[in-house]
Amino acid sequence: MIICNYRLKWGEIMGEPTKILIVDDETLLVKGLKYSLEQERYETDVAYDGEVALEKALNNKYDLIILDVMLPKIDGLDLCQQIRQKSNVPIIMLTAKTEDMNKILGLEFGADDYLTKPFNILELKARIKAILRRTAQPKDISIGDQVIEVEDFKINTLGRKVALKGKNVNLTAKEFDLLVLLATNAGKIFTREELLETIWGYEYFGDLRTVDVHIRRLREKIEENSSQAEYILTKWGVGYYFRGGKEEARIR
Questions:
Q1: Residues forming beta bridges with residue 240, ordered by sequence position
Q2: What is the rounded distance in angstroms from the CA atom of residue 92 to the CA atom of residue 128?
Q3: Which of 50, 75, 118, 163 is the most buried (most CB within 10 A)?
């Protein structure tokens, strides 16, 4: 009920405001975004260059970052990569470049989503809400209440944490969602279209290669040899699946 009407904002659900960092060197664009997002009762912070943005991102807690690719001092792709080394905060990248490879490159560096300028503010808000729905964690629920154990993985779905053979794995929001979906449906083959629709949502109109990029990044983090995957396998011409183990995923 809460999710469907959007009238109750995440900050009200969670007991504290949702904080968004806007990073762009276009003053008028930032001003417009700030006003529009604050109308949705999001708390916003801004940065106009990469250095200031990096300092703010590493020293403050944000629920989401909107990040332009073209920035002075530190460009958006390098900034995204540096943030990713320290944080899993969801990142939506803004790019004025229309070539597909530039969009995919943004995802390679750790972005969760992207929009090409000029964009519709309603679409941006929809992307923000979709990401927050997937990453929101109610404060009054113990993060130890639901754990999925499958193969060598222990996945804490409420804390959104993953351990592989006892070692923590640092995943982005989309990588985590992909792993949970595939691991809890071991042996089931998902097409790229199904993964795009399920993980990114109906409102997402992305390139199917977005799925390939995220799968590749996920494999690099959980496979000993990503070119010879053991966990997330490819059914050529169809899609991806988690290897079928002897035991089904156990949820406790």
A1: 190, 234
A2: 8
A3: 50
Bridge partner residues of 241 (DSSP): 233
* φ/ψ of residue 92, rounded to 5: -105, 120
* pLDDT above 70 (res 64): yes
pTM: 0.67
**What confidence score (pLDDT) does residue 158 get?**
78
Crossing angle of helices 27-39 and 121-135, rounded to 10° = 60
Nearest to 121 by CA among 178, 46, 191, 38: 38
Are 36 and 42 spatial neighbours (Cβ–Cβ below 8 Å)?
no
The phi-psi region of residue 201 (left if phi > 0; otherwise alpha if psi is between -120 and 50; otherwise beta) is left
Q: Where are the beta strands (DSSP E) in the chain?
A: 19-23, 43-47, 64-68, 91-95, 113-116, 147-150, 153-156, 161-164, 167-169, 190-191, 232-235, 239-242, 250-251
- Of the pLDDT bands very low, low, confident and very high (cuts 50, 70, 90), residue 125 is very high
* Average confidence (pLDDT) over 24-28: 96
